[in-house]
Amino acid sequence: PSAGADAAFRRVIELAPHQAEGYAALAQVQMFPGRDQQEAVALARTAVQLAPTAAHHHIFATACWNAGDPASSLVALEQALRLDPANGRYRDDYFRVRQSFQPLQP
């Protein structure tokens, strides 16, 4: 992602701090490898707080997973599925994260 996208989304947040979209978009930029994963989590959490949509819960779940927090990721995916139970991507991600909690079989 370009520095321009980062700056543009930060400007969106500055201009509309009570709108979730800027936080969600910047969270997705921050999820790229080499970027600030903890900031991605914080931004995605803010998006969920401002507008608790299924999509925002999914972004938060992905940010948590990338930051090494599968438990929070699973909770967020459960919420995304409650809001949008027909979404195959959310369901696939939920089962992938849930599997990470299964003990390894000998």
Task: Describe the fold and architecture.
The structure is a single chain. The chain is mainly α. The chain is about 75% helix and about 0% strand. The protein has helices at about 5-15, 20-30, 35-50, 55-65, 70-85, 90-100. α3 (about 35-50) runs antiparallel to α4, α4 (about 55-65) packs antiparallel against α5 (about 70-85) and α5 (about 70-85) runs antiparallel to α6 (about 90-100).
Helix content range of the residues, please?
Answer: over 70%
Q: What is the terminal separation in angstroms?
A: 42 Å
* Principal-axes shape call: globular
The major β-sheet equals: none
Task: Tell me the fraction of residues in β-strands, as a range.
Answer: under 5%
Low-confidence stretches: none
Count of runs of 4 or more consecutive helical residues: 6
Find the structural class using helix and strand composition: mainly alpha
Rg result: 14 Å
Number of strands: 0
Helices and strands, in N-to-C order? HHHHHH
Q: Overall pLDDT, averaged? A: 93
Describe the secondary structure blueprint for this structure.
Elements lengths: L2 H13 L4 H11 L6 H14 L3 H13 L3 H14 L4 H12 L7
Helix pairs in contact: 1-2, 2-3, 2-4, 3-4, 4-5, 5-6
Outline:
With 106 residues, the chain is mainly α. 73% of the residues lie in helices and 0% in strands.
Features:
globular; mainly alpha; 0% strand; 106 residues; single chain
